[in-house]
Amino acid sequence: MFDPLMYVKVFAIGGLVCLIGQLLIITTKMTSARILVTFLLFGVVLEALKLFEPIREFAGAGISVPIIGFGASLAHGAISAGETMGLLGVLTGGLTATAGGIAVAIFAGYIFGLIFNSKTK
Q: CA–CA separation, 1 vs 102, rounded Å?
């Protein structure tokens, strides 16, 4: 069902995530890598506290597509597999849950590496 309000919510929440990232870049000396890890860990914490799902139900792709959603997926996979497989599940569950996205990212990076001529700064 088409819900125009959902597009507004996705755009607003995704934009808020980007705004927070931009504010961190402007106001702190954090590198892009540290901001990335901070957002990833924020997603892990939200999932561990069981707060990510209610936010995702409200914001949809606005919260699940950015790196916060990837962190939550890693945590969800580790928690779920840990409950069924124990310690081995904790260690492997996150990668199992996100393997598809990781494979696509590696493949796309390889293809773009072939197409474009990258240069160091």
A: 30
